[in-house]
Design brief:
By secondary structure, the protein is α/β, with parallel strands linked by helices. It folds into 2 domains: 1-112 and 268-370, Isopropylmalate Dehydrogenase (3-Layer(aba) Sandwich); 119-262, Isopropylmalate Dehydrogenase, CATH 3.40.718. It has 12 helices and 12 strands. The strands form 2 sheets. It has a 10-stranded mixed β-sheet, sandwiched between helices. A two-stranded antiparallel sheet has the order 6-7. The N and C termini lie close together (10 Å). The relative contact order is 0.17. The protein binds nicotinamide-adenine-dinucleotide. Keywords: Amino-acid biosynthesis, Branched-chain amino acid biosynthesis, Leucine biosynthesis, Magnesium, Manganese, Metal-binding, NAD, Oxidoreductase.
Length: 376
């Protein structure tokens, strides 16, 4: 068969468990696309990361960046190793360079309870956790990366940057996502701005632009919560939120908190989306504490790959790609549904290979959906 939609994917496994979850992810993508038909991916495996820096002196070689810029989408494992650092003491993080250099302003981090995966929250309402953090990903406090100043070993300064054009695109993206989620039945039609506008001029500006853009979406609820109050609310009543949008550093922190609510980093996918490019990667890092043991939970990597297929399908009007994305998401839910698949976050013995096998089996078993999803 000659697939009608073929997309070029730049594959950056990176470091540590990023490498370990990438091939299983390709296996899952291929299995889903085989069942759906009419869509194919053409992979280009590329070098980048802390180990690449150690070997070559360059964490993101130009050839890798150029291939990423030409690809239809970028699939990334994880990058960075705590013991490999630049001379200024900061870590190698080419995933941040990609966000800045490709203008990937919207960091999309869905936080959803997978039925069958336990939550550490005692309330049964934890089963209804389903919200999305939009982390601005090109400015905020991270604009200071590589520009921080230490004076005479006495004082250090990093500067936060908030700009109107990025905020406008970011907030419009967030409101449109809330519309889509409400349309698909998963959202509440609510967007929450998370800031510290009570203290900082930059956040008062952020909030002012949020309110301006909210006025363009009168059918959606728009509200504000300070970051410290949001840290509390995400533990006490996370099921009340829908879409929340925040600055880069706050989003970095809140998304790990969110991952903790639904079982850990292995269940938290992400997409970094701009107007022309997008990177899809799990929220987790290279996890040096478990790297090499084969026990990393690959679910977030698979969920991120499903987000990639969905984004490609929407952008290129390729319904088969979106059907393959749904198939992967449904297979993940099916694999965990009976509560027996226990990953290492819970002290279980379901390692990378076991989780992958279970999800591949669920993809193969999902004949009903394939029939409905439309093999040509
Ligand atoms: N986007 C990225 O590539 C990214 C994100 C965060 C951290 N990092 C880098 O990764 C390195 C390690 O950072 P860290 O330890 O702070 O964060 P981490 O996400 O790598 O690990 C945090 C904890 O979560 C666990 N964990 C993470 N992913 C898991 C998975 N898939 N399955 C089971 N357990 C998992 C780890 O074992 C660890 O206990 C650092 O060098 C850091 O800079 C990279």
């Amino acid at each position: 068969m000659n697939p009608s939609s073929t997309f070029r994917i730049a594959v950056l496994p990176g470091d540590g468990i990023g490498v370990e979850v990438m091939q299983p992810c390709i296996d899952v993508l291929e299995a889903a696309m085989r069942r759906v038909g009419n869509v194919a991916l053409d992979y280009e495996w590329l070098e980048a990361g802390a180990n690449t820096y150690r070997e070559t002196g360059n964490a993101l070689p130009k050839a890798t960046f150029d291939a990423c810029a030409k690809a239809d989408a970028i699939l990334l494992g994880a990058m960075g190793m705590p013991h490999i650092r630049y001379p200024d003491g900061t870590e190698i993080a080419p995933q941040l360079d990609l966000r800045f250099d490709l203008g990937l302003y919207a960091g999309v981090r869905p936080i959803r309870t997978i039925p069958g995966v336990p939550s550490l929250l005692a309330s049964p309402r934890a089963e209804a956790i389903d919200f999305v953090i939009i982390r601005e990903s090109t400015e905020g406090l991270f604009a200071s990366r590589g520009k921080g100043v230490v004076t005479d070993d006495r004082e250090a300064r990093d500067t936060m940057v908030i700009t109107r054009p990025v905020c406008e695109r970011l907030f419009d993206f967030s409101f449109r996502l809330a519309e889509d989620r409400r349309g698909s039945g998963s959202g509440k039609g609510r967007v929450t701005c998370v800031d510290k506008a009570n203290v900082f001029a930059s956040f008062a500006f952020f909030r002012k632009i949020f309110d301006e853009r909210a006025a363009r979406f009168p059918d959606l609820a728009a509200d504000h919560v300070y970051i410290d109050a949001m840290a509390l609310s995400l533990v006490l009543k996370p099921w009340e939120f829908d879409v929340m949008v925040t600055e880069n550093m706050f989003g970095d922190i809140l998304s790990d908190l969110g991952a903790g609510l639904i079982g850990g980093m292995g269940y938290a996918p992400s997409a970094d989306i701009g107007d022309e490019h997008a990177v899809f990667q799990p929220c987790h890092g290279s996890a040096p504490d478990i790297a090499g043991e084969g026990k990393a939970n690959p679910t977030a990597m698979f969920q991120s790959a499903a987000m990639m297929l969905d984004w490609l399908g929407e952008r290129h009007a390729a319904p088969s790609a979106r059907a393959a994305a749904r198939l992967i998401t449904d297979a993940i839910d099916a694999a965990f549904a009976d509560g027996r698949l226990r990953t290492c976050e819970f002290g279980g013995d379901a390692d990378t290979a076991a989780v992958t096998r279970a999800i591949l089996a669920a993809i193969d078993n999902d004949t009903a959906r394939v029939a409905a999803g439309g093999r040509a």
